[in-house]
Amino acid sequence: MKRAAFLDRDGTINIEKDYLYRVEDFEFIPGAPEAIRLLNLAGMLVVVVTNQSGVARGYYTEDDVTTLHRHIDGELERFGAHIDLWLFCPHHPDGHGDYAIPCSCRKPLPGMLQEAAGRYDIDLGNSVMIGDKTADVEAGVAAGVRTILVRTGYGSDVAQGIGPQTTICDDLLAAVKYLL
Length: 180
Known about the structure:
Distance between the termini: 18 Å
Structural class: alpha/beta
Order of helices and strands: EHEHHEHEHEHEH
Helix content: 25-40%
Low-confidence stretches: none
CATH superfamily: HAD superfamily/HAD-like
Radius of gyration: 15 Å
CATH class: Alpha Beta
CATH architecture: 3-Layer(aba) Sandwich
């Protein structure tokens, strides 16, 4: 079985911007590409799990999300880093049409982590979820992985309410250095 680092996207890998989907608006949080490269070098699978309710709300499409992820892949290549699997939840209860459904993939539910574990033979007990929101931590706990909250994005705002089972680090690079 493989170890994985499950990473939230917005506020963890890239600077938080409301409903980010345009390539020209993307910016890495300083140190994030290096952190991902270190995870790659350590032999951990890197799986991004991100809620993208903007799809359900009609702000952008699933193709827009995929285009942004391809752009991020290209940017990471310049740092010698890569993402092994991108998973996103396009659903939201306040969404429209087929996206306004109850689902098991929207964090804080563990569906995306469980899907990745099934597809890649991931040992959840030896894996980690790193994110900037309570929902990221709750998804990790529900999936049975170790959890780290970063203070980037919304992390500083929610750190006070995080339980002692979750490690708190300044950013993704600090979290990865702590982990490794």
